[in-house]
Structures are given as C-alpha cells and as structure tokens.
Amino acid sequence: MIRVAVVDDEPLACSGILTRLRAEIDVEVVVECADGHALAKLRRRDVDVAIVDVQMPGLSGLDGLAAIPAGDRPLAILLTAHDSFALRAFELAAVDYLLKPIDDERFSEAIDRARRALGRGVSDRQVKRFPIRVGSRTCFVDADDIVWVEADGDYVALHADGHRHLLRESLYELSHKLDSTRFLRVHRSAIVRIDQIAELMPRSNRDAVLRLRDGTTLRASRTYIDTLLAALSPSTTKPRASVEQSL
Question: Residue range 136-154: average pLDDT?
Fold first, then answer.
C-alpha cells in the first residue's frame, strides 16, 4: 500500500481529496493534518507521499517540506489556487503540481506519477511498440518514433515519422504506457514528447502555444502548464527543448 498524508487547512478541500483517494485501491491515508508545522515532522519512514496545500497559515506547505531533511522527505504532490510556486515545488521533489479547483483526471495522473516514482505498478506497463491495424495487416509504431499524440473519439492518433496512426485506446490509458520522463500530457487531448518542443509561447490566460520541431502547433492548457515548465527547466535533468520563454 502507498501511505499518504493529506495536509490542507481547508476542510472542504481536504474532504474532496480524501474522497478521491478512497477510489485508489492501493492507497491508504495514514496522516491528516492542517499546517506546515505538522508536515515538517513527517518522515519517509512514516509516509510515502504527502499531498500538500502550498499556502497555509503559519508555516506554508513549501516551507514545511523544506524543513524535512532531503533524505527523509516523502514524495510530494502540491496543491494551490495560484501558479507561482512551480519551480520551487519541483526542487522539493514534488512529483506533481495541481491547480485548484482540482480536475479529477489530473488528480489520478498525479497519483500515477507517485506510483511510478515509488516503483509501484504503473511503471511496469511501459510499452516500446504499438500494434496498428491497417485493413487485414498489423504494423507497429515504435514509441521512440512518436512525436505527439492526440485524442480522437474512442481512439488516439499517434503522430510518428510524418504519419498519423489510429490506436483504439484512451489518452489516459496510453499515458501509462509511455515513458513519463520523455512524454508529457500538455492538454486534456494531447501528449507531447518533451524533446520535440522547439518553442513555448505563453498567453495571457496562462495557456501556452507549443511549436514542435516538425512545425506542428499545439495548445498547452493551464492545468498542465506548471508541470510542463518544470520539465523544460534548465534545473531538471530530463531531456528538454530550447524554448522561447525564459524559464
């Protein structure tokens, strides 16, 4: 079981988190607290993942995490109504950064990221090749050749080697089968290979426009933008693109 601490000073928000966690059969909530001081006392031997509200009275969620020695710090999923803490959050080993109000699918993705980081279940499903039916034939698309993926009704379209291949699968299911260090959800209907992003052009509403190396332009929604910026940050060790925005 994945042991989880929920740290949030808002009773309604905390209740919503607990309700979502009850749907995760391999998750057990072992700690509930409402301030950064209580968070600072947690250690990895006590919990695997802390779901933390960034802004709380007294000691903030970020400061509470920073007070835990790095070697003892549990993985963290950060929650906030604001969007100005993303890079510091990832410096504190946050596996995801969610904006309130929380989207149910994004919350499930964050739990899946924690599973991957802990080596539990989801990471074992990574797929290297995808079978595509073309009439009576079956051809295969290598994951390494995929540039981006889009949702298309009951299918996903894999864009690889200049071609568009339809696969009967949901985007959410497919996201579990791709290497999460190389592929990132940027929109409810799109996944992008990180090293294929050539430019990121921010918009005033916190969305962004991405230009890929093949010339494709895509929208990155505010729901995913902070995770994307952290993945593209020079301070990370993940493959990254040269982007237009100063990170």
Answer: 94
Q: What is the DSSP letter of 221?
A: -
Class of domain 2-123: alpha beta
CA distances from 121 to 1, 8, 30, 124 (A): 11, 27, 21, 6
Residue range 141-166: mean pLDDT, rounded: 95
Fold designation for 127-232? OB fold (Dihydrolipoamide Acetyltransferase, E2P) (2.40.50)
* pTM summary value: 0.65
* Bridge partners of residue 139, in order along the sequence: 132
DSSP characters over 2-63 = EEEEEE-S-HHHHHHHHHHHHT-TTEEEEEEE-SHHHHTT--TTT-SEEEEES--SSS-HHH
What's the pLDDT tens digit per position in 74-128? 999 999 887 667 667 767 878 888 988 888 888 988 998 898 889 886 545 678 8
Mean pLDDT of 33-38: 95
* Residue extents of the structural domains in the chain: 2-123, 127-232
E-only strand ranges, the chain: 2-7, 27-33, 49-53, 75-80, 94-99, 129-134, 137-142, 146-152, 155-160, 163-167, 183-187, 190-193, 197-202, 208-212, 217-220
